[in-house]
Amino acid sequence: MSKKIVLDKTRKQVREVVCNRCDNQTNHIVCSSLELSWGNDDIQGVDVYEIIRCSGCDSVSFRIGSSNSDDFEQDDDGNYSHPETEEIYPSRLMGRTALEEIYSLPDKVRLIYRETHIALCTKLKILAGVGIRALVEAVCLEETASGRTLEEKINDLVIKEILTKKNALILHKTRLLGNIATHEAKAPSDTELDVAFDIVENLLETVYIIPKKAERLK
User: pLDDT tens across 82-115, in order?
Assistant: First the structure.
């Protein structure tokens, strides 16, 4: 297979991608690039590796654009084109930036939160569902909730006045979603994951982040 490398061919070009910090689709400038052309008698392709910088907040990401002769599209006029697939690192999902004050979380809770957030952004749905349940478990463990089951532990958080009854009822729905992902290896829908993660983030803010902010006001 033949290969050819060209450096900085796409430098200073603009890419429209979701910014991990701006939480919106923004223009990113290519700071540096490497284009790898490859092929043989059966297939030819191009992989472009780019370091890109958001023109809004200056955050840096890594982009891979790939295309090959086997993947093609035809328009109404009969013209062929080769669509480019795109990967962005670190992975991100618009509308789902991580909590800003993540340092306010206990160590174990923070670790599980980060990994669950990554799974959600990379659309690893089963792992995200398992992670959401693990987050609830971690909070119960951190707050020494009593009970043999997660359901009983959540109810004990109400007794300890860490959760309201209304929030506990909502959290039970999240628990059930996590159970399905954990025990049945069934992927939740995007909507279910989005709502469940909102609920868990609200739990983390209520139990850890807001009290830390309140301490700074004293």
Answer: 788 888 888 776 667 788 888 999 999 999 999 9
Fold of 102-217: Four Helix Bundle (Hemerythrin (Met), subunit A) (1.20.120)
- Contact between 24 and 18 under an 8 Å Cβ cutoff? The reply is yes
Nearest to 192 by CA among 178, 182, 212: 178
The answer to whether the CB of 143 falls within 8 A of the CB of 207 is: yes
The residue extents of the domains of the chain are: 2-89, 102-217
* pTM greater than the 0.90 cutoff: no
Give the pLDDT score at 110: 94
Tokens of 9: 């061919």
The CA radius of gyration of the chain, in Å to the nearest whole number, is: 23
Q: What is the 3-state secondary structure (H, E, C) of the chain?
A: CEEEEEECCCCCCEEEEECCCCCCEEEEEEEEEEEEEEECCCCEEEEEEEEEEECCCCCEEEEEEEEECCCCEECCCCCEECCCEEEEECCCCCCCCCCCCHHHCCHHHHHHHHHHHHHHHCCCHHHHHHHHHHHHHHHHHHCCCCCCCHHHHHHHHHHCCCCCHHHHHHHHHHHHHHHHHHHCCCCCCHHHHHHHHHHHHHHHHHHHHHHHHHHHHC
